[in-house]
């Protein structure tokens, strides 16, 4: 396999630089399909809540590959590539549904929820002629399945036998944060889907970046969901490819806010909401956390913004575009008022969210900006310091991006700086 790694090395050992070509180089994009999405990594697929009953299924993606995730009759979860074992047609054509067998539209080959081939029309021919060879064995023509594991109701798949168990892949620091949110059964509230004209990794950079959050987002800042003057922490797992940003509304001093935003128009204390019921929502947890943004390498984010809870799946659609697929949830024991409150607050997020709208635009701006830079040009990621990549108790940092790029470079086989 020819890889870019023989010719490309990362420009700095501490990942304070990121070559812009990772956002527009087609060879790198092709290599990601092999090394990340087909490599030893767990890919988020869906939640168990979405496929609770036998026969429930959803279409999801591993990289650009469509995958069907099924709840089988014996209540296990099976995932297979959405491509017929006959001549490769897309098998399942609805985003989600319930069926105990999947029939291909093209020649009606039929499969069970585990991907086993059940029936081939005209297998014995017609009027004694034609048909499949006598030794054709349906057992040898199942759909291509993936390994599947779950953690706290989150379903992941991998194509690689080398991927470690999901529990270990997440690591203790990430599991602890998942445990905090998934301490009770979920209630699915809905989905958002949007297309963003940017390389998929620009969204990962965005959600790992607390620096922008207090500067790009007026709503965040003005209405006190997120300010760098709040108590905040950025931390990573052992690989540093996963990360957590947390802000809590604790100990913020008005004088510090005034200093931080002197001369910056993103903090507008004179702004008031016409409808204050947007914030009249009972907190789900007593810990005063206003934001919790958890990313799992390579491409999923689990988030809390005030009382909204979402999974954001970053689905690449070519080098310069991705679909951002939002699964928006509450909790099974939420009463009507809690659900109403969460639905009101869903206006914070999604394609036109008071906060999230700006993040889609940020990715677009970077893609436009870097597209025609010199091949050796790179970004500058020094907020929070150079050198060792370490957890930090501030929001004035970009260190989680450096952790992501370190793990990315290792996974992609970029040669370390100084090597050849
Ligand atoms: S391609 Fe599916 S049955 Fe022929
Ligand atoms: Fe943002």
Span between termini: 18 Å
Overall, the morphology is globular
Low-pLDDT residue intervals, each spanning 5 or more residues? 1-6
The CATH superfamily of the largest domain bears the name: Naphthalene 1,2-dioxygenase Alpha Subunit, Chain A, domain 1
CATH-scheme architecture of the largest domain: Alpha-Beta Complex
Number of domains: 2
Integer average pLDDT: 95
Helix proportion of residues, in percent? 10-25%
List all distinct small molecules, including ions and cofactors, that are bound in this structure.
Answer: FE2/S2 (inorganic) cluster, fe (ii) ion
Question: What quaternary form is this?
Answer: single chain
| CA gyration radius, whole angstroms | 23 Å
Describe the main β-sheet briefly: 7 strands, antiparallel
CATH class of the largest domain: Alpha Beta
Task: Give the strand order of the largest sheet, numbering strands 1, 2, ... along the chain.
Answer: 2-11-10-5-4-3-6
Order of helices and strands: EHEEEEEEEEEEHEHHHEEHEEEEHHEH
CATH third-tier fold name of the largest domain: Naphthalene 1,2-dioxygenase Alpha Subunit, Chain A, domain 1
What percent strand?
25-35%
Discrete helix count: 9
What structural class do helix, strand and pairing data support?
A: alpha+beta
Number of strands: 19
